[in-house]
Amino acid sequence: MPAPHGLVRGARSLPRIWTRETLGCRSRACELNHLAMELAPTLPSVTMKFRVSVLLVAWFGVLGCVQAEFFTSIGHMTDLIYAEKDLVQSLKEYILVEEAKLSKIKSWADKMEALTSKSAADPEGYLAHPVNAYKLVKRLNTDWPALEDLVLQDSAAGFIANFSVQRQFFPTDEDEMGAAKALMRLQDTYKLDPDTISKGELPGTKYQAVLSVDDCFGMGRSAYNDGDYYHTVLWMEQVLKQLDAGEEATTAKTQVLDYLSYAVFQLGDLHRALELTRRLLSLDPSHERAGGNLRYFERLLEEEREKPSSNQTEAELATQEGIYERPVDYLPERDVYESLCRGEGVKLTPRRQKRLFCRYHHGNRTPQLLIAPFKEEDEWDSPHIVRYYDVMSDEEIERIKEIAKPKLARATVRDPKTGVLTVASYRVSKSSWLEEDDDPVVARVNLRMQHITGLTVKTAELLQVANYGMGGQYEPHFDFSRRPFDSGLKTEGNRVATFLNYKHEQDAFKRLGTGNRVATFLNYMSDVEAGGATVFPDLGAAIWPKKGTAVFWYNLLRSGEGDYRTRHAACPVLVGCKWVSNKWFHERGQEFLRPCGSTEVD
């Protein structure tokens, strides 16, 4: 089908292209410090505040190492708060300088107005006094040119220089798109309508925040530019709702109708696309593209009427009523996963709950834990998932966050076909890896996890620290590698895991020589006001973050085969800042600590 006339509307606006030099943290900070020394002396209106600002940016240059992607880590986004605060202060200083300049100009204008009114009334009589004649010559030769210099003085130089330096580290178009997608992810996962998000009516929020008409329009446009017409319609309808309520905005209703009519057409709602286009033309009869679209839509509608009638599906009928279904995506257990994130569909039956207990855990009579055992609580019976309390102190948590933050980088996943680490939209967080040499607290926490689990950390991976960003999540995944440990895996079957074909998956841990990931120890380093649960879709289990606690489970059966029931996910963070750390224990070295089973399902 040819595209409607004019619908290739310049419609998908191309994002700005940002180019940056890939420099190391030290060289960037050095460069910025050098820039501070160069700029400050050449700008007479640059205050000491600007020097401080540039030094702040020099420190902020460390953040340049992570190459944008601010939306993937709330921890890094906090730095933007301080950068914006600095810019506001710089702007206020510019305003004070500008106001002082205008005050001088106004005082001069008032003085000259009074003088010229008097002199113009009797020019010859006024100039008859030799002092007046001298002062007139002096004013025009000296004073007025001085005023010209004052007017031309660029008091904005300090602010512009500060702004230009900091702008290098501003969020990019990628960040804005990522932030918009995060809000849409929260909208879908937690079944929030745009009006609820626009009013900021989210659970557990400490601060009030609302979306203006222009903000909502930005959301709709981001969805449109991403080819997401479902969310385009939802947000453009919200824009119309707020405009109809009388909210002031720079966004015109014709702009909204232009996007909306095309989006509903893409969703197959020809009748509504026609109605919206007519509405657009009633507001702007000279809108050329809308006129062409109207003729195109009318022709399509006429062709549709000439076709023999057929039974319409429920989806087609719903579309004609302006109700649009969310498109099906790549994740087979999407509905189950998101239900668990909302706290729905948890299969913790009374019978199962009776099998869950609390106890003091001494780690197989580990001497250190005999003196101070940990409180252990069953979260799930099979596979056995337990939670430990008071695993990390607040001081330890803050220290680990402090040393991890400068190292945070976009979390990656391993491509199942190539084995190469890459970023993915289904994992939105930043992570770093801490060695025991980084700080004594790392070694102390590692040893504590060894005591609790009874497993050795000698073959375990480094301590990974992760901070989740806006709508931060990690969709359903396995911690263990499916190849070659499960070479007999079939692609048919009734378990969710078998929907995926791992035929070509690389052995992710072969180069380590330590075997597969036998167990996961997950520390919650923050409370989360809303969302952020760890869920197991195949089990129907949901575990909620609680600061200072940790959960533990085995990824492999005693036979060494993967336990596919442990497929799990980190739900999007609705409100709050989620920090976690985890230790992945590997098979090698555990032979006598967790002996193998005698059958495949042990």
UniProtKB/TrEMBL annotation:
Under SUPFAM superfamilies, the record lists: TPR-like (SSF48452)
Q: Which purpose does this protein serve, as stated in its record?
A: Catalyzes the post-translational formation of 4-hydroxyproline in -Xaa-Pro-Gly- sequences in collagens and other proteins.
Q: What is this protein called?
A: procollagen-proline 4-dioxygenase
The entry assigns this protein to a family as follows: Belongs to the P4HA family.
User: Endoplasmic reticulum among the record's keywords?
Assistant: yes
Source organism of this protein record: Equus przewalskii
**Record keywords:** Dioxygenase, Endoplasmic reticulum, Glycoprotein, Iron, Metal-binding, Oxidoreductase, TPR repeat, Vitamin C
TPR repeat spans:
254-287
This protein's encoding gene: P4HA2
